[in-house]
Design brief:
The chain is α+β, with helices and mostly antiparallel strands. It contains four helices and eleven strands, in the order ββαββαβββββαββα.
Length: 226
Amino acid sequence: MPEILYEDNHIIAVNKRPSDLSQGDKSGDESLDAEVKKYIARKYNKPGEAFLGVVHRLDRPVSGVILYARTSKALERLNEMFRTTQLSKTYMAIVKERPPEDEATIEHYLKKNEKQNKTYVYDSEVKGSKKASLTYRIAGRSDRYYLLEVEIHTGRHHQIRAQLARIGCPIKGDLKYGFSRSNEDGGISLHSRKLEFIHPVKKEKLVITAPFPKGDIWAAFKNTET
């Protein structure tokens, strides 16, 4: 079971590992939501299968904060918040190439290829594309890599991976979008760092932060982990 970042009667947030599936798929591998259901059933002695609503997903090779709903009321309200972008989502990405600017908002049009499970990026609208926007800033630098803080303004398939690759900064380990080598753990160096939102039931502001993954690459940026 991965690290629990926040838990109450309505929601639960965990620190996803790069190998975890957010939700079950055709691979048949045990998914993170199944693990969390078992954890809840054990902890609260619930008979049968515990309720757990999948609010959003992270790509399998991505780590960091992932949020699940423990009640149908919380699920309905969180789904609406994600749909209307009432949450602030911050990611950290490690790239080898320095981006064109220290800080910038970039906009593209993205089109998903279902067969390849890959997103293609265009500078202007094409048939079937959707507008995508994110803001990045250089948050740190090591001997070989740059750490980027990324805030997404739209929720598109592989958005950060595709848009950063488009500006010449593929994420470390992301072979699908042009990085030269894979990471040893099979993941990519993209981390869902922080979620900020209003609690769907308590109506209080919540900020849930996931510690950086273990490993020498992330350890080089420990001083930026605020």
